[in-house]
UniProtKB/TrEMBL annotation:
Residues 44-180 form the Cytochrome P460 domain. The keyword Signal applies. It comes from the Bacteria. InterPro entries: Cytochrome_P460, Cytochrome_P460_sp. This is Cytochrome P460. Keywords: Signal. Residues 1-19 form the signal peptide. It comes from Bradyrhizobium brasilense. The keyword Heme does not apply.
Length: 185
């Protein structure tokens, strides 16, 4: 009886140590920050935001999500009414590598491995020199389940500051630097 109890104790301790090691080694994505730029933590809870739109570009599919301030602005007609988005409006764009779901009728294209997540936040004072918007991009490695700030080696290349998306977004300056269309519902 004693030997059995000892074996159970050793097994329990081993499992506890293993579980603790896994928990410690898991990445806290909210601790990440683009050097001199946005922090992942500024977008805590983005996974639960409503969908603004979906898109496909350069071989990846995306869901563009918005916080309540962003969704409210779109519903008020911004940017089509000529007004700017309010400070505090945020968007998250999650990209996936598409895959065909062979087993489903019609073999639809669905999200496969996650590719990255991009963020935008409107803060006229903090980002006065980039149209009032701050940008951040975080690449995702599915094999290790880890995010990292995007760099100039990524596609598209990302500088290490919150203005990394500004150059691309100047072509939609008349839409307050926002490409995304809010679909009728």
């Amino acid at each position: 009886m004693r030997k059995s109890s000892l074996i159970n104790l050793v097994a329990s301790v081993s499992i506890s140590v293993l579980a603790t090691g896994v928990a410690i080694s898991a990445q806290d994505k909210y601790s990440l920050q683009v050097p001199n730029g946005l922090a992942f933590s500024e977008f805590r809870g983005y996974e639960d935001w409503p969908v603004i739109a979906i898109s496909e570009n350069e071989g990846v599919i995306a869901a563009i999500l918005g916080n309540p301030a962003m969704i409210g602005a779109f519903r008020e007609g911004i940017p089509g009414n000529g007004k700017p988005f309010p400070d505090g409006a945020k968007m998250a764009k999650i990209h996936w590598i598409p895959k065909k779901q062979e087993a489903y009728p019609g073999q639809p294209t669905v999200p496969g491995a996650q590719h990255d997540v991009d963020f935008m936040v409107k803060d006229s004072k903090r980002f006065a020199d980039s149209g009032g918007w701050g940008y951040g991009a975080f690449e995702y490695d599915a094999a290790s389940d880890v995010f990292r700030p995007a760099t100039t080696a990524d596609n598209p290349p990302q500088e290490n500051d919150a203005k990394c998306g500004y150059a691309c977004h100047t072509v939609v300056q008349n839409r307050d630097y926002v490409f995304t269309e809010y679909g009728k519902r």
